[in-house]
Amino acid sequence: MIIDGASITAFSSAIFLPWMMGIAVVVFLLGHRAATNLFIVTGQGYLVGVFLTTLIIQLWHMCGLPFNFWIIALAMFIVVVTVGVLALFTGRFHYAELPSMRSTAVWQMLAVVFFLCLIGFRYSTLTQELLLRPLYAWDAWMNWAPKASVWFFHGELIPFVSKETWLAASSDEIIYTAGASQAFRYPDTVPILQLWMMMALNTDDSTLIYLPWLCVAVAMGLAMYGHVRLAGGSVLASTVASYVLMSLPLFGVHVGLPGYADLWLTAAFGCSVLALHEWYQTRQWPYAVLSLALALMCTQLKIPGLIMGGIVLLVFLVAASGIKQVVGFLLVALVAVAVAITVLAGVDVVVPGLGRVVIARDFIQLPYIGRYDLMFHPVQSSIIETLFIMINWNLLWYVFLLFAFLGIVQGAMKSPPSIVLAALLLGILFIFFVYFFTNRYEFALDFTQVNRALIYLTPLMVFYVFSIGRQRLELLART
Amino acid sequence: MPPISTREFVRGMVFAIALLILSLAMLISFAWIYFAYLDRDFSHQGDPISSFKIAGSELLLRVGQGSSSESGQFELGGLSMNDQAIITRRVSLEASNYPFVRVSLSGVPAGVDVYLLWRTSQAPFDIQRLRLQFSGGQSDHFYLAKQQGWRGRVTEVGLDVYGDLRGRNLVINQLAFLPASWAEAFRTIWSQWNGQDTWTQGSAHFLRGTPSASILSPTVAVAAWLGLSFLLVYWGRRFAGRGVFVAMCTVLAVPWIALDFYWQHKLDGKVAESKVLFSGRSQAEKREADTDADLYLYARYLKDTVLPEPGARIFLLHDTEPQTYTRLRAQYYLLPHNTYNYDRLPNKPSLERDDYLLVIGEIPALEYDNASRTLRWGDEKLKVRLLDSHAEGDLYRVMRRRAK
């Protein structure tokens, strides 16, 4: 069967080979060493597989090998078989012991079917939109797809450079510059994924190139189900958690109008923190490895991914150090004082291999991230509008605040925050800092960027609500 | 806690649904009283204000093709060369007397954008516009009072239509400017919630869920419903027995699902438009059916018949700032050609022999002298050869070498 000149075999391989490779790796990593379930393996596996695919293509380029879809696919198939065999022979799959489905009441099963139908209906609509409309969303055709088109045509990862470098170069040199002045700095993972699909379809202009955006949403939904189950949630609660995440309007729009990197960063950050949560709960180290691998993926997706990956690393280091509450509080106070002194006195150092780091009262400059002037910007009305008045998040922020309020009232502040809540709060602090205190505030006022940062937090918010929700509501019912 | 039985589930569910209905009734009552209170305020300001209606046949065609019919309608049959039609009428209205407008149109095809336009005596040369998003019914209400330009004395009103009518007639039945009343407020909220909008380049950034000047956000309304229902369940929790957990979950889930259905309805409308535009078409045909088809066809023409194989450098010139839609879109359609896309005028020191200059649209400061094969701008000039001239732009090849 042919799809616009490409075989269905190539197209299917482009979708499923990365997925199989990721599943094999996750099974090998977690299978007999840590409690898991098929939903975690499948959901986390897709992200790991896509990340490995992009790394293999980059390795291919570094070795100077010509791009050929089938040869790269063969290499990936060898990885799948090798890791799969290793996983099979190194031990038995360790299924987490969960409450049996047999104890599920009829009403719960009906409710599960209802929510699955809602997910199915929504994603059939989004898939139609994805397949019908040629690449539409602004940043998708401005920042990400052009790199992939150029690489597809040349058969190698031609460098994209700043406009100044491009102008200074000789016309004989094959280098490109994007239409957006900073796009040359953006990491290559997403365009390499597009390149992979283009090679399979043998064209750089097809809506099928963007089918991985549907897959990553489904993978995130599966991972959410698996992790809520592992945290003790019922089949119904886990299904509703997946539905809540997957039904968020802005989450879905990034599937229907694909091509941005934000959904990938959302999934990578979400899965990374959920894996870290599992590691912290059980101290099964393979989850820490999985989490850190996905944190690395975050840094390779977008520039804000450096911060999101850094948040995972920071939470991991604090959790691994076994710092008790009082020591932790002292550490936070110490860091706060250090930050205050740094801002008052200023820092201006060159970090070898990274670049210049400047922290002054009125601006900061960080390697890879850039320079930001520091000043308070009153963007609160835009933030309130986007969280509570627009339809971006359905009622997620209302529900999240309700449960946070219940937590405070019920004395949850007496114990240290969970891994997920700690990462979530750090993420909120980072995003609010960026839009309240730096010159990126204008992207909160016109809403062009702020929601694409807030979307990274949604899997954590959903998991937080569903992991503590029942306990909070039952306590409330008894008061 | 032991598992919840089906009986307890039913009890909790019935309890929750009863309170959801009660809270919905309470919220509608509150809103009713609030708008009635506003209504009373307006009626105190003087003589009652009657609505101002303009039949379609009373509108005059300024741009486009169409005619009035004997039945009082205006039938718009065609658009101008730049896919636009304007139909207006002179009026004299005090904007503050008319916070609402009811627009009755039929036959609006997918992909066509309709704006209400008006001028005021305060700014007679400025045209104010409000994008109208229709529900597909016979008429829709829109809220004008929140529009910044809806102030003072309105001197002209009308409609501005963009897009492709696809061979159909767009029929304008009536424009009715309406005074403040609770009934119009409710009708306008209903119209706003039902109005179908299309994707925009901002859709991946934020989703309002309603037109920008909505009276009441559906998210806020549903959140209020959730909040009140949750409080009622909490206060009445002893009546639900062991089903109280189910009741709490239900009052959280039902409003969420209601808002989700609302969004699904919006999404269905957008997909319906995509089907009309793109269904059953190849990728190239989809591009040709898209809103910037002219630019796509021009880029394809250049790639297929004028430009050499990708490799040469193209300097794209457009009379706009960097990173604006037309220039970025042209660059995208020209891929995999190597395009530099930041200038309005030639960047002379960077140009080399056999580089290409692609001028998209008109740049008044740039002139080409055919006799001397020279491009001139300000005090600068550059030897070039005009390779192609087209309605969308001109392509030149640089004939001189950059000074090293």
In short:
The complex is a heterodimer of chains A (479) and B (404). In chain A, 67% of the residues lie in helices and 5% in strands.
Molecular structure report:
The complex is a heterodimer of chains A (479) and B (404). With 479 residues, chain A is mostly helical. Helix content of chain A is 67%, strand content 5%. Chain A has 20 helices and six strands. Chain A has helices at residues 8-30, 38-62, 69-89, 106-132, 138-154, 163-168, 189-201, 211-230, 235-246, 249-256, 262-282, 285-299, 304-320, 325-345, 380-389, 396-409, 419-437, 442-445, 450-454, 458-478; strands at residues 2-3, 6-7, 347-351, 355-359, 363-366, 370-373. In chain A, strands 3-4-5-6 form a four-stranded antiparallel beta sheet. In chain A, helix 11 (262-282) packs antiparallel against helix 12, helix 11 runs parallel beside helix 13 (304-320) and helix 13 runs antiparallel to helix 17. With 404 residues, chain B is of the alpha+beta class. In chain B, 34% of the residues lie in helices and 27% in strands. Chain B is built from eight helices and 18 strands. Chain B has helices at 6-43, 182-194, 218-235, 237-240, 244-278, 283-289, 293-306, 325-334, and strands at residues 52-55, 60-63, 65-68, 74-78, 84-94, 100-106, 113-120, 128-132, 140-143, 153-162, 170-178, 313-318, 338-343, 356-360, 367-369, 374-377, 380-389, 393-398. In chain B, the strands form three sheets. Chain B has a seven-stranded mixed beta sheet with strand order 13-12-14-18-17-16-15, covered by helices on one side. In chain B, helix 7 packs parallel to helix 8 (325-334). Chain B is globular and about 90 Å long.
